[in-house]
Amino acid sequence: MTDETRRVAGRRHLRYGLAFERTQHPEAAVDQFRRAIAADPTLRDAHNALAFHYQQQGLLAKAADAFAAVASLADDYFAHFNLGFVLIELERYDEAEREFRRCLELDPGDVAAQLELAYIYAARGDYETALNFLTIPRQHYYDDWGVFHLLGRCLFHMQRFDEARQAWQQSLALAPTPETQLELLSCLQSIERRREFHATISHKDELYIHEGVICLGSAMDDGFTIRPLSNYRFSELDVARTIQRFLALARSSEWRFGGVTTPELMSKPLALTLAQLLNLPLLSLHHLPQLSEPILIVMAVGHSADLLTIARERLPVPGPGFCLAVNWTRQSKLLPEIIGVIVEGQCTVPWEEELQSLDTAGQTDHIKHIAGRLIQMVQTLPGEDNLPRQIRYYTRHHRRLAINALLHTSPPDHPAE
């Protein structure tokens, strides 16, 4: 087959692929794009079409490879920009930076590339450099809420709180959806939370500042110096200590729940334990009564943020979530209102193997047995000397909690220090 014949065949397959894509036949389209590339590996438009297809399907690593092929065939601005954009989504920031810097070499005044470089440096935590790259984009994209959201984030981390507030308020005025408005209101709230601290910020403090999240810890800590764990298997003592702290805070704060529910089997022993200790019904997520009080969603090991989201959607009124161990932080930034600890890698609870070995009837009886053990341990576990101070952290000093909006409580205007 001659070179000209290959080029003709490649263009023919490309046309077929685009036609299949327009008629919503994605599998046939991608097959034709691949055939076009096989016939003519230098056909840039075929690589580009395949890359955009992969990007739309969420196959970002494949999209990056295809965009890289485009960039190798044509050293132009759009080839490098498209590749850099996908590399940011893959969090491959060093590679993405190279692509956007090449964009600036090809078009020194390009504002879009400067904005992407600002995102890259902010993601790395180099907020001063990110702020420098935002100088022109913030003027050019004066009606883009995302630019001012990023600007506020940089200023916040540089502790320029008044300027961060101004940027986020401008972003809020431009926000296109209720979801983005809520996100920005949370950002503004984080400024007030950050002002409550004058000393070194701990992991527990950070969770409170950025999300209003309550972090209780486990038997592995003192309730204040709480660090993310790695590849951790919980003991019943760990679970009992976290429950003990939860109960003390719930009673001191006078939280009122209509019941307790859970979206998964492995969390039922924990959910039943809390329900009985709080004197609340354990409710099936699939048959929830119409209650006016919020229902507490309980998860033992949270492997999937989507599971929490789905559970929330089933509630008759918005309710808070409590997760003993959040294990999804690499996949999602979502956090429940109350957590024990964050765990990276493998994470299990002590009853996991017990329940997996039983049939449905046996599981039901054994869940009650496990809950009984946990209740006894919680009630006989010696209290911590610093438990009152742990409780005061959230009831007196740092009261701007995410759970307040769900339990219809409000913090004071000026929390006590």
UniProtKB/TrEMBL annotation:
It comes from the Bacteria. This is Tetratricopeptide TPR_2 repeat protein. It comes from Chloroflexus aurantiacus (strain ATCC 29366 / DSM 635 / J-10-fl). TPR repeats lie at residues 10-43, 77-110, 145-178. Keywords: Repeat, TPR repeat.
